[in-house]
C-alpha cells in the first residue's frame, strides 16, 4: 500500500482560510429592506380652485381623443392636444322603471354639475332611445351649490306620482354623485320621502339586477373589450357574449361579481373576438336561469365593432 504524502500543517491552514474567505459572501444571508408598494399610476394633479359663485363639482378633464386610432393594450396613449380638453360624464336615465347608465363626452367646463343636469334634461340620444332609455327630468334642474359633500338642487317641476318623482330624483342623485366632491344631494324643496340629503344607497333598489357601465351605447370598441358594471344575480355569476351585425355569436365568457344572490357586487370581464370589417354589433350581459338555463335579466348594448390591427 502506498503511503500518502504528508502535507504541511501551515499550508493546509492557509488553504482553508482562503477557501472560507471565498465562500463567506455567497453563504451570508442577503440584505433586505422594504421599498414600499410599487406605484400603480401617476398621481392626479391638484384640483384647480373653482371660480367664485355657487360651488360646482369639478372632475379632472380628460384629453380629447387623437386620430391615431386605438392604442394596443399595455401601451401608453398618444399625447393629446391640451387646447381641446373634454370630460366624460356618466348619466343615469330610466329604462323599464329602473335606472340605466350611459356616457357623454363634452368640452371641458368647470361647471360640470350644471352640465350633467342639463344633459339629463335633454335626454337620451336616438340610439339610447332605441334601447328603451328615457328621462324624467324634462323640466330641468338647477344646482344651487355644493358644501361639505352635499349638492343642493332645485327641480323645476313636480314629477307627478310618487314612483315617478322618486325615479326622477334618483336620476339626479346617481348622476351627481359620480363627482368626488358630491356624496349626497339635498333637494329644494325637500322630497316627500326624505327631509335631508340623500345618497346612492337611498335609491339602490331602483337598479336592475344587472347594470352595464361600460361599454356605452354606440361606442366604437376593439378587441379585447372590457365589460364592467354591477349585478345582483344568482351565485354572483355574470355571463356575456358579443354578437356581430348578423346577430351571430362571435365571443362569449363569464365572470363573478364581488357579491351576489341578495347583494350587489361589481364585476369586470375581458372578451376578445375577430371581425373582418367594421360593423354594428351588440354586447349582451345576462344571467343564466337556475331553473331552465335560459338567459334572463339581459342587458343589450349596441356598439360598433372595430377590427383589430
From TrEMBL:
Residues 40-52 have a biased composition (Pro residues). Residues 53-72 have a biased composition (Low complexity). Residues 34-81 are annotated as: Disordered. It holds the Pfam family Gmad2. Keywords: Signal. The keyword Secreted does not apply. Residues 113-198 form the GerMN domain. InterPro entries: GerMN, Gmad2_Ig-like_dom. Residues 1-28 form the signal peptide. This is Spore gernimation protein. It comes from the Bacteria.
